[in-house]
Amino acid sequence: MIEIMKDKHKSIVLELLKIRKEEILKHFPMLPESFFSDQFLILKIEEMIVSGNGFIVTTGGETGFIFSYYLNDMFYQRKGAYTPEWGHYLPTEEHMSLLLNAIYKNMLAKGCVDHSISFFNHNSSLQNYLFENAYGSRCMDGHAIVTPTISNSNHVREAKKEDLIFLTEVLKEHHVYMNNAPIFLGFHFESEEAKILDWLNDSNCKLFIILNQNKPIGFTYLNLSGSGGCESASDEKTLGIETTHILERYRFGGHLNKLVTFYHQFAFENGYTRIAVDYETMNYKAKKSWSRYFTETIRSCVRNIGN
């Protein structure tokens, strides 16, 4: 029988997550271990219990659970449910079926039309089940352990406010690229110029101009306090790579290889131990490029259950 997660389930869920921790870190040693600590797991279990949005079931001699946040604006101004990578343990197809159905019933009651779920990318059984049940891949987190090499300092320089016109041009092109075929991401900035100014004034971020023979051809945005991906993807020792765009007329020059060398050197010099990037998998060119340099660690999928 499916139950709402309660205090009596705390120790059971903790043991399940501790078992899963060993498996995950064996596959992905580049992930931050702090997010698999007992302290972190206990905080998340308490969050699941307090919310009343966690479900647990024992069947076939095994226990599984699932949890979701319910969001008023998840995708395209629609209500949705999000199950984070730490918010489920689904050992068999029967657990997947029973617990996802519990989520769907909650979604219908709350008027949600999209369900997104993140999971560690070695979990092929869950991925296959989701894909067969109308989920599609949406986002991927990738990681690399910092390996410093001497980078070419002529390939990048830190952006300044004097670069605002150029940076705005690049972000506008990026915006158009992400919102049209084949990606159709559907995001909007009220003002690209205002967004650039926000980044330039943010102490937790650094913008770098990408150069080709001293000519600016794009920019890369580094998050100094983590990454924009899943919660367990980054910590204070993780350098996050976020919006990166090279103007279309300057692509295909081997620039990403030089950029990745720069990321590793910058990370090393500033005390980071890992680098994280996240990208939309429907941006297939980006996926093919980033996955050459980063291990794909956490996948996020989405299914629409209504209009």
Total strands: 14
Structural class: alpha+beta
Give, in order, the helices and strands: EHHEEEEEHEHEEHHEEEHEHE
What spatial form do the alpha-carbon principal axes imply?
A: globular
Which residue ranges are poorly predicted, with pLDDT under 50 across at least 5 consecutive positions? none
User: How much of the residues is beta strand, in percent?
Assistant: 25-35%
Mean pLDDT: 94
Alpha-carbon distance between the termini? 30 Å
Instruction: Name the helicity range.
Output: 25-40%
Strand adjacency order, main sheet = 4-5-7-14-8-13-12-11-10-9
Tell me the major beta sheet.
Answer: 10 strands, mixed
In angstroms, what is the radius of gyration? Answer: 21 Å
Q: How many H/I helices?
A: 8
Structural commentary:
The chain has eight helices and 14 strands. The chain is of the alpha+beta class. Strand 10 (205-212) and strand 11 (215-223) form a beta hairpin.
Chain-wise SSE layout:
Layout lengths: L2 E2 L5 H18 L10 H14 L2 E6 L2 E6 L1 E7 L2 E6 L4 E2 L3 H18 L3 E7 L3 H9 L3 E10 L10 E3 L5 H16 L12 H9 L4 E8 L2 E9 L14 E9 L8 H15 L4 E7 L3 H7 L4 E10 L3
Helix pairs in contact: 1-2, 5-6
Key terms for this structure?
307 residues; alpha+beta; ten-stranded mixed beta sheet; four-stranded antiparallel beta sheet; 8 helices; globular
What's the short story on this structure?
This protein has 307 residues and is an alpha+beta fold. The protein has helices at 10-27, 38-51, 93-110, 124-132, 164-179, 192-200, 255-269, 284-290; strands at 3-4, 54-59, 62-67, 69-75, 78-83, 88-89, 114-120, 136-145, 156-158, 205-212, 215-223, 238-246, 274-280, 295-304.
